[in-house]
């Protein structure tokens, strides 16, 4: 119990102190997708180099520029380890969740990671990396050191990042795509679909830990942070980048996790709920690459959802500002009942998940009650929590095999 409390305290240090001491990245001028000069970081490695090619897979690095100027990194794994491409492979876009990046889908060994399993089963796999994360810090005119670079919430991911990545994959593959979202990756997709966006290039979608409503979130850290306006406090202090990856803190966590008898899967429990199926060794792999930065404004937006229990756009808490942005005194709501009833959905959620709480997921499912019966597959795992869906050693049997079977039917 003492160790669990220590780890929880360290998590709080990461969240609310690490943000203030984020490391700066060397910048160079590069050419963006549209030929414009851009400020982009120089990473020491790339996802292809560090996480894919080392496993024996072919991998391509791609850059996509959003309409508002953010230069996003994408990785494509076009063929399995055999190197053969039998016919035209259906494309799958994998979208990670909050404080993560595309490495989400590569943390497990190749015979267990969803990205590698999909490509070995005949799919053309694409990894998205949200703006602000390590490999997507470029912009056509802004530097991550500027406040304006971080002036976005998940509304902008719906309006800009998702359309840019969807269209890019569609154009490159020449066919409609399947989509897999985890956590925040499900929220931005549901919001887009509720506005009838992206549907013309979408074949089907799989939502793991679907998040729409957050009013009954069970995570004590997330709930306390929202109730105490901690993200707002960081914003008022002038901290625009929410950076939970302080080098000293990560080293401390690794040192603790390497001590005999310490099970660092508890490190994630305070956020995610009690994960059933993680090997302790996965946490060390996780800390090598995650967590990643997001904007403090994005954290405020999510806190608003927790406090209000609704799915609305960012609230400026000022009628004049809201009218300026939305033409009305309160933020518009994303209406989940307007999602087309014939959109093929695979939804999987867990009984132990403290972020995508069962009660909140059921609110979403109530909104989908008129969905075509043959277009909606709902999977429930009583023992699964939030991280099990991307790091669980048995996820291949529990979630990924059914997911791939669903895709093959579409």
TrEMBL record:
One of its GO terms (molecular function) is hydrolase activity, acting on ester bonds. It comes from the Eukaryota. GO terms for biological process: lipid catabolic process. InterPro entries: AB_hydrolase_fold (IPR029058), AB_hydrolase_lipase (IPR006693), Lipase_euk (IPR025483). Residues 49-107 form the Partial AB-hydrolase lipase domain. The active site is at 183 (nucleophile), 353 (charge relay system), 386 (charge relay system). Keywords: Hydrolase, Lipid degradation, Lipid metabolism, Signal. Residues 1-22 form the signal peptide. PANTHER family: LYSOSOMAL ACID LIPASE-RELATED (PTHR11005). Belongs to the AB hydrolase superfamily. Lipase family. This is Lipase. The lineage of its organism: Eukaryota, Viridiplantae, Streptophyta, Embryophyta, Tracheophyta.
């Amino acid at each position: 119990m003492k160790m669990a409390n220590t780890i929880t305290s360290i998590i709080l240090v990461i969240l609310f102190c690490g943000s203030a001491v984020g490391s700066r990245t060397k910048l160079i001028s590069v050419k963006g997708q549209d030929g414009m000069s851009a400020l982009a970081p120089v990473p020491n490695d790339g996802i292809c180099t560090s996480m894919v090619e080392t496993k024996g897979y072919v991998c391509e690095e791609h850059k996509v520029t959003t309409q508002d100027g953010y230069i996003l990194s994408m990785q494509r794994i076009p063929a399995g380890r055999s190197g053969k491409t039998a016919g035209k492979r259906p494309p799958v876009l994998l979208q990670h969740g909050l404080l993560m990046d595309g490495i989400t889908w590569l943390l497990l060994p190749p015979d267990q990671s969803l990205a590698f399993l999909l490509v070995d089963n005949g799919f053309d796999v694409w990894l998205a990396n949200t703006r602000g994360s390590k490999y997507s810090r470029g912009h056509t005119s802004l530097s991550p050191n500027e406040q304006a670079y971080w002036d976005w919430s998940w509304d902008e991911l719906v309006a800009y990042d998702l359309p840019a990545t969807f269209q890019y994959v569609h154009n490159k593959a020449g066919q409609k795509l399947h989509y897999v979202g985890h956590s925040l990756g499900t929220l931005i997709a549901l919001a887009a679909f509720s506005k009838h966006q992206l549907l013309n290039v979408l074949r089907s979608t799989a939502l793991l830990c679907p998040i729409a409503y957050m009013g009954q979130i069970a995570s004590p850290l997330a709930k306390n942070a929202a109730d105490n306006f901690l993200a707002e406090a960081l914003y008022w202090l002038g901290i625009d980048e929410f950076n939970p990856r302080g080098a000293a803190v990560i080293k401390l966590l690794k040192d603790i996790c390497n001590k005999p008898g310490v099970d660092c899967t508890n490190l994630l429990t305070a956020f995610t709920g009690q994960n059933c199926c993680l090997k302790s060794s996965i946490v060390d792999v996780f800390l090598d690459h995650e967590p990643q930065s997001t904007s403090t404004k994005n954290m405020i937006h999510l806190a608003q959802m927790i406090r209000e229990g609704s799915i609305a756009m960012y609230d400026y808490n000022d009628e004049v500002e809201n009218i300026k942005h939305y033409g009305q005194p309160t933020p518009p709501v994303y209406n989940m009942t307007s999602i087309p009833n014939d959109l093929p959905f695979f939804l999987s959620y867990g009984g132990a998940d403290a972020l995508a709480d069962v009660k909140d997921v059921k609110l979403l499912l109530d909104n989908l009650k008129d969905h075509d019966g043959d277009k909606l597959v709902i999977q429930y795992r009583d023992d699964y929590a939030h991280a099990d869906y991307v790091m669980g050693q048995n996820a291949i049997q529990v979630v990924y095999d059914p997911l791939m079977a669903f895709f093959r039917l579409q």
